[in-house]
């Protein structure tokens, strides 16, 4: 499957056979969608330009990719994020997202696809609805403002992700993690906890 080693279950169940064929121990059996998903994610995470194909033809505007190919479900784990000390939540959130982006190519894939594919955009909005808005409600001064505050935080974090991991602006890529946290942390903090703009 696109230069991906795809041994059948009869092979992966026989480790001696795998060793004789020099198949690495970490290579186990996978159903066809798993290596295909990995291949799509590698392509999306690469800096090379891509064009979507849809059932053997070039993707037409308005024709959605299948949910499995469009993106993956992402759980950034915001409910488990420590919110104390409250005055550090902006830095904590930016640091958390940086770690996620740098350790998970699926987020870059989701970002690339989310701009043009409704299914992927919905996955990103789901994180906003189910995780970021509740966090903003928990730490902000006015629960009614939580959707607005969460959207502002998302615009900051996603703006960085777009310029650093997708478009790869040299100045954005050159920043180290501490610099990003120092610059964006106070902004996200203000969005979440400031009494007034």
Automatic annotation (TrEMBL):
Highest taxon listed in the record's lineage: Bacteria
The Tetracyclin repressor-like C-terminal domain, residue ranges: 87-192
InterPro entries attached to this UniProt entry: Tet_transcr_reg_TetR-rel_C_sf (IPR036271), TetR_C_16 (IPR041678)
UniProt-recorded name of the protein: Tetracyclin repressor-like C-terminal domain-containing protein
